[in-house]
User: What shape does this take?
Amino acid sequence: MQKFLRCVFFLIIYTSLNLYAADIKSIGVPYIENFSKALYASGNQNWSVAKDKDGVMYFGNAEGLLTYDGKYWQQYKMPNNQIVRSVAVDNNGKIYTGGFGAFGYWSFKKNKLKYTSLTNLIPKSDQLKDEIWKIHIYGNKIIFQSFSTIYIYVNGKISILKNASNFLFSYKIGNRFIVENKGLYELKGNKLEFIPGSDVVCKTGVLSILPFKENILLIGTGKDGLFLFDGKTFTPFNTAANSFLSAFQLNNGAKILDKYYAYGTILNGIIIIDENGKIIQRINKSSGLQNNTVLSLYADNEQNLWAGLDNGIDRIELNSPLYFYLDKTGIFGTVYSSVIFQNKIYLGTNQGLFYSDWNQNDQFSNLNFKLIPNSQGQVWELTIIDGQLLCGHNNGTFNVVGNKIEKLTGYSGGWTIKKLNSNPNILIQGTYTGLLLFNKNSSGRWQFYKKIANFSEPSRYVEQDNKGEIWVSHAYKGLYKLKLSSDYSTVISNKYYDEKNGLPTNYNLNLFNLEDKIVFASESGFFTYDNISDRFSKYNVLNKTLGSFASSNKIINAGSKKYWFINHGKTALANFGEAGKISIDSNRFSILDGKMVQYYENISRISDSIYLISVDDGFVFYNASQKIQSSSSKIQQRVLIRRIEDITDKYSIISENGNGGSEIEIRNSRNNIRISFSLPHYRQAKIKFQYYLEGYSKDWSDWSYATQKDFTNLSSGKYQFKVRAKIDDSQVSDITTFEFTVLRPWYLSNWAIILYSIMFVIILIMGKKIYERKLQKDSQKITDKLQAEQDEILKQESEANEKEIHKLQTEKLQAELASKNRELANSAMTLVYKNELLQKLSDDILKLKDENGKKLADEQIRRIQKVINDGMNDERDWHLFENSFNEAHESFFKKLKAGHPDLVPNDLKLCAYLRMNMSSKEMSSLLNITLRGVEIRRYRLRKKLNVPHDKNLTEFLMEL
Assistant: This one.
């Protein structure tokens, strides 16, 4: 019976969630992306929203016009810093804006977005003095509406429409233009015609007119609810939303996904209804909006609903397979486990076990979570087994019944609990201190059986293999294989495994049952165990298929041969249904990256296609059957070239829209640029870019998330920058091309080349003349050179003759000198012989005797000796010798006297005799002194001449 009720419950849930399989679900809220004013760096209020044909979003902001392209925000100020109340974009790319006392359009001029005012076209008698609240593109007309006047801009002119009383707001529905003025008026031609009976809907003001089915209009009023207008009558639209819209003051509306209607309110966010008036969604600050005051709504062509808020901008991702319930108030803390059971939803958190009633027939009803008494503390796991909800808690294990818990055991830390494969009537649980067993009592309720003996290690993960052995792992304790006794009560064999057995590490090892096979998860990938070798090896086939998810830290069974792989905060769903092939999808779950409790991720399967995913501050519903509707499998958007910046020394903007149809030329001295690009795809996806600069790069870059690229020191020439995008590693966009030219440096410009050409011609002419002059000079030089060579030859011949004559003269002089030296030597020898003879006569005279045999008288001898001495010392002989010596030795005595003026005549004589290389004996004869006297004179002469000790005196005088 319990199984039947559970099946019925799941069927109801499944049916209600899949009734509109490709539509908006009532459970939770769609993904909401918040853009705070700190992010877009502009004013807090956003009064209007529009989108152009390229996908760029425009917002009428409190501080001006705000643009967003999926990556970059940019603010543009109005001329007088007015608030932009209204925005509209035509098919030509013009962005029309209106504010207080001003309206006009923005367009790209010289590749920069510039404002052009149109108020100067207004007749002076009808000058604009209030706010422009609405702008409509109506055929070839642009309609600007203020509370007092409607301005119609067409063909460069402005016409005026007024009424007896002030307008409220205007609406364009298809080809119809309707404005409220104490009733509804429709523009027909150039006139406003009253719609009969419309005053009934204008009592509290009309704030929204949307197209309904079959040409019917859905009209939203300030406080009177919704009405239907079939072209003739106005009928109240009975819906539960009326009380909500009246209480919280409807402010605007938008039709979404062709069958839903979203209404923004002043006080409580957004409400979404279907064509039957059923409330599908309520989205407010408590469920993800930044602010409850919705100033504008815009549904784009990518199933996004944009909300301009009183404080920020939000994007609501419609038709998403993920729906969120987040605890923005922090009531229940961090969610570790969640499950729906018997019309209640349970959340196991770090603060305790919380529950709320769950009405499958009214899933939109607000959830009101309450703490189950006595459940305070850490909840690790919530598991439904055989129709009973078991809670693994820090304080033990409990059976959850409604809003109460029944304690099964006080053993703390119930991490995981499951049936034994070998005996489905017994549960095995991993705790802080080992393993526990549970069985059923007589009434079929689970009860504590016993603690398994002989094992007390922390048991984070527990699995039983096909041999009945129990595998246990803990992040910091390692891996164990246990063999139990036949009654499972005792561990009879315990083996610990580490690196010695092929494991990459002892830490962060987890184990899971994957397709009836135990796999072991690690940072290095998945491993399998071989029972024969008792070793572990890499599960290469699985690792290769999973790619980056090969290092997943957790696997959760998703049923139908599908498994969740959790890789440190990132989530993927793998399908093992097709034999030999594994498909893995992680792209649609990128929203969940980092939002789950790491290492304690929990995903519960509610039905065949509905999953309940626990996240940090709540839970998420995933509908696997929900398909994202798209008009084409190809990327509809193109990559936009956004800012081109000069980054040479200081930053400056070259362009805000690539080349924008005009040629971009960059000065050569400013050849360092940054190119920014983006893909205006706003739904959650992994968007990568690849670029190639033709003329600079050799090949396409690697795919990356970067949305800008710097190029430095670009040489002159034409370039093509090509870029493309890839969404979720599958769809690739068309290539967007941006062309630009880096100009040549000034010295290579066209004018410079012309100048160079003129200078070249002038240089040629001057060169010709210079060459002719040079030719003449060279001819003259050759003539002069020949003449000089002849003169040189004659000069050389003359010098040779002179040298020959000089040689002959020298030889003659040398001959004469030799002759004179011989004569001088002969003369000197003659003097020597003479003096020797006289000396001998002097000696013989002393020996002479008279006839009596007696010596001669002394007087006689003295007279004879005097004659001899006079002959030996005759100065005439010396003067004759001196003259001859000077002739032979070129004034030797003059040089000697000049250098040594203290020399006496006898010194000069000795110098002359030494120069002639005479012997001491010869010199003693000439000087009429003894040999000893010669040596003494030589010694004295050396001192007077300062002759060095190691120098021969004769050589010294000969060198003089």
